[in-house]
Design goal:
The complex is a heterodimer of chains A (about 150) and B (about 500). Chain A has helices spanning about 5-30, 35-60, 90-115, 120-140. With about 150 residues, chain A is mainly alpha-helical. Chain A has a single domain (about 5-140), classed as Ferritin, core subunit, four-helix bundle (Ferritin, Up-down Bundle). In chain A, helix 1 (about 5-30) runs antiparallel to helix 2 (about 35-60) and helix 3 packs antiparallel against helix 4 (about 120-140). In chain B, helix 7 links the parallel strand 9 (about 180-185) and strand 10. The longest helix of chain B is centred in the first third of the chain and has 20 residues, at about 50-70. Chain B is globular, with a radius of gyration of 23 Å. Classes of the chains: A mainly alpha (about 150), B alpha/beta (about 500). Chains A and B meet through helix 1 and helix 2 of A and helix 4 and helix 10 of B.
């Protein structure tokens, strides 16, 4: 089902943040050598939800195209957050990178599609996309990739 | 996506809010308030007795002298607290609107936000209410003007924006030192009750804000009462004319915002994709139940190719609109607020067919997302080959029906718009600045859009309107509202 409304797009953003937060919580328990990094990601996810919510609730009006702004296929951003019990550290980081890439793509696409909405919404999406882009380089440079 | 949780869990017995107390009405007459999507009973609203309406007015009158003496800064502190409470209860307020009105959750949240913005602008009263002065208008003589509140103001609310519309007026009225009596629409009064709960919590003194339920009888008492200094009304032109007349007879000032038949015209140089999204919101947002909705879509120019391309794109996009219960986040258009409203739209569709307009998208047999009775549902409808003399081009349908017309040039459309009895809003979609300026300059409408589907003025601008869409002089919102709720007192002063 294609997502068209602002409300649904915001819910998808929150779902992606919550799912990935849960994934990082799991990583922090499985791979304690980088616990702090993973927990900091979780905290950032909460901040992103706050920022997205603030942008949406701050500017939503009955006058703009809130019900017709998006054409997002949620399947394209479906996250695989389950890790096999025996998954190695490298595999886990690889999965994290996949997740981040999908989420960055979601925010980038959502920013593009929401251009007709008040500036705050695409700006918030862009900002989160950019910050999560930085997270990718952190993940790629994490020490202790050996299993 | 899931259906959002409903905040109303049991049937509410609504009470009046008079003199800072919740008072049960003695009236035996109650109206049912039903959720238009699922037809579940949400509340029973009393048709208050004459004495109850009089009591609300009396208490507002008694509260006025002390409230007026309260410094503006202290008055707006109540508004600041109200704003904070509205933010805290944002989601609940929004979902209540969806439940009682039927609009989508995005639309309800938009309505809540707009309501809050009115309160925010009202908090600027210490600056907005300042008068002005001039020294030495003659030797040793100074002159100045003071803006003073008048007393009690009344508001008769419409059903289509049950939460927001009363807020076009009440924050301005109260911030300027007046007291207020609101009569919500009996069709969907719950969000006003929720707002009054927040007003109470915000600490406004008893009697400053009063809510009294009722129908036409309560409205008449308010309009005829000598202690009410001014009335604000939003509704239909036929009733609005009566309101304006009665206010004139009893010496009240009035803001009467009424019906509309808005033209949206698309020039051949318009950005098609951006325009379509704006048109969908305009024609079908709030299920067409708003005075700023698009009604007549005029595609301008002799280029058949552009006409067909644009119309096809509009029809295709419209046919995909997802209709259902507004608490389903994926839904793009909710039901009509009432069965009556649906009947009226169906009647106009029949009229359109009889008038030989071409029905190219028929919404009479609705496709509904989810398992809901079709009592109030209707799908978007589009007529083609509509001409300006047809009823469906002239009369307010107040539903999700678009009448597509074709004009040879901009001048022809301007002439059609200016021939209409109504003058609420009109929009042009174009990339040509000269055409846009000409449109803005010539068109006799109060709210003009350039590449805007819904020309909703922000809280700090007046909500305008002309011809049979507005009766009065000053408008709601912005500086107009500040002037409406105050009288100019001029002092000419000399000291010997």
């Amino acid at each position: 089902m294609i997502i068209n409304t602002c409300s649904e797009a915001m819910s998808l953003a929150k779902e992606l943040e919550n799912k990935s937060a849960k994934f990082y919580q799991h990583l922090s328990e499985r791979f304690p050598q980088n616990k702090e990094v993973f927990l900091s990601f979780m905290k950032e996810n909460d901040n992103y939800i706050t920022q997205i919510d603030r942008a949406y609730y701050g500017v939503i009006t009955d006058a703009f195209e809130g019900c017709f702004a998006f054409a997002i296929d949620p399947e394209a951003y479906a996250l695989q957050t389950e890790l096999m019990e025996k998954a190695s550290y490298s595999e886990a980081i690889g999965r994290a990178i996949e997740i981040e890439e999908k989420i960055v793509k979601f925010y980038t696409d959502a920013a593009e599609q929401s251009k007709s909405l008040m500036a705050d919404i695409p700006r918030a999406f862009k900002m989160v996309a950019k910050k999560r882009g930085n997270r990718l380089s952190t993940l790629k440079s994490l020490p202790g990739k050996k299993d | 996506m899931a259906i959002l949780e409903e905040p109303i869990k049991e049937v509410l017995e609504l009470k009046n809010y008079i003199n800072g107390e919740w008072v049960e009405s003695k009236s035996k007459e109650r109206w049912d308030v039903k959720n238009p999507a699922n037809q579940k009973l949400l509340a029973r609203v009393p048709m208050s007795t004459k004495n109850e309406v009089l009591e609300a007015i009396k208490t507002a009158k008694e509260a006025f002298p002390e409230w007026r003496r309260t410094p503006p800064l202290a008055r707006v502190r109540c508004l600041f607290r109200l704003k904070e409470l509205m933010e805290k209860n944002f989601e609940q307020l929004s979902r209540v609107q969806t439940m009682e009105h039927g609009k989508t959750i995005d639309e309800s949240r938009g309505e809540t936000r707009r309501g809050i913005e009115m309160v925010e602008v009202g908090t600027g009263i210490p600056s907005l209410m300042m008068g002005y002065n001039l020294e030495d208008i003659a030797a040793g003589i100074d002159e100045y003007v003071i803006y003073q509140p008048l007393g009690v103001f009344g508001h008769i609310a419409p059903f289509n924006f049950p939460f927001m519309v009363p807020l076009w007026f009440s924050p301005f009225a109260m911030a300027t030192g007046n007291t207020f009596v609101v009569k919500p629409s009996p069709r969907d009064p719950i969000s006003q009750v929720k707002l009054a709960e927040l007003v109470d919590e915000a600490g406004f003194p008893p009697g400053v804000y009063n809510l009294v339920h009722g129908g036409a009888e309560a409205a008449n008492i308010m309009m005829e009462h000598p202690d009410i200094k001014g009335m604000t009304f939003v509704g239909t032109t036929s009733i609005g004319k009566e309101v304006y007349k009665k206010c004139g007879e009893t010496g009240k000032r009035a803001i009467v915002q009424v019906s509309a038949k808005n033209f949206l015209l698309v020039m051949p140089d318009a950005d098609i994709n951006a325009t379509i999204a704006a048109l969908l919101t305009s024609f079908f947002g709030n299920t067409g139940q708003r005075c700023l909705s698009g009604a007549n879509l005029v595609i301008v120019g002799k280029d058949d190719g552009f006409y067909k391309k644009f119309l096809n794109a509009f029809v295709e996009a419209t046919s995909k609109i997802k209709v259902g219960y507004g608490l389903d986040e994926s839904v793009q258009m909710g039901p009509m607020q009432s069965k009556d409203g649906k009947e009226r739209v169906l009647k106009y569709i029949e009229i359109g067919i009889k008038e030989k307009a071409k029905l190219i998208l028929d919404g009479r047999k609705p496709t509904i997302t989810g398992n809901y009775p079709d009592a109030c549902f209707i799908n978007p409808t589009i007529f083609e080959n509509v001409t300006p003399d047809m009823s469906i081009a002239k009369e307010e349908i107040f539903g999700a029906v678009a009448s597509v017309m074709r004009a040879k040039d901009l001048d022809e459309v301007i002439q059609w718009i200016n021939s209409s009895n109504y003058g609420n809003a009109a929009s042009i979609f174009t990339s040509n600045g000269k055409a846009a300026r000409e449109f803005q300059y010539q068109v006799e409408c109060g709210n003009i859009g350039v590449n805007i589907g819904i020309v909703a003025p922000m809280a700090f601008f007046p909500f305008s309107g002309m011809k049979d869409s507005f009766y009065g002089i000053l408008h709601g919102q912005g500086r107009d509202a500040v002037r409406f709720f105050t009288e100019s007192k001029v002092v000419v002063q000399r000291w010997f």
